[in-house]
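Hi Y.,

Following your request, here is the sequence exactly as I used it, all 61 residues.
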Amino acid sequence: MPGPTDTKELKAIVNYFAEKENKTPSEYLKSVTERMPLKRIADASEIAEGVSFLSSEKASL
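Below is the corresponding structure, written out as tokens. Let me know if you'd prefer a different format.
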């Protein structure tokens, strides 16, 4: 299951929670990603590539 993806919405969420915890957005994002299995945020293009593959003939049985 993919984790968070770098989007405008994610940035807004990070800013909101960073402010609540008196952290900078970078500090908050680092604290979140350190607890994630891959230790990083996905890029939207990574999700698009997976969707593209799954909807292509290459993914057929």
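The two ends are 22 Å apart (CA to CA).

Thanks again,
Q.
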